[in-house]
Amino acid sequence: MSKQAFVILMGGELTPTDRLAGHLRGARVIAADGGMRHAKALGLSPELWVGDFDSTTQAQIDEWPDIARQPYPAAKNETDGEIATAEAVARGARRLVFAGALGGERSDHAFMHLLYAVKLAEDGLDVLLTSGEEEAYPLLPGTCDIDLPKGSLFSVLGLETLAGLSITGARYPLTDFHLPFGSSRTISNVAEGTVRFTLSSGRAIVLARPYDLSGA
Fold this sequence. Notes:
13 strands; alpha/beta; 5 helices; Rossmann fold; TPK_catalytic; ATP-binding; Jelly Rolls
């Protein structure tokens, strides 16, 4: 990774995969509360563990006695993931991989992670959210290339009306397309390799399933 990369371990679902291992390679690691449960399976030793620790057992704390912990009260204004992100940015992060940020029992948290990712991208950070089997990328005005396995599924979820959306490198390409807010037109496309997205205005999330070849 050419940019200073940090992995933020989150409390959602996470499956170790080869793609996930590639995203983690060479990155520094910060755990957000219950996200620490993924560290052993991924072979990671975070440099910092933050949060209110309401999702962490004493056994987990005892298992990692040498990891620096930064506790916060449960009554706080930010999520544990946002606190971990602030710590990463303060340490020079330019690329953020949120591992375990998708799925899980809390749909509100998972949706907030998607919105927060877009905000961070607007601030100039390179952001990826992943469960190992599913990946999410913020899509803002400009051009974005995402390298996906041939035949894998992806969708574009507009957070508002999208103007000038072009998609190449996919089974169903688009050129200068106007996507109304709430439209399902860009759900379930199929990658032919690296997919290029160009957008004139609006904000969206590209949700990809690299191991799902059901559309092939």
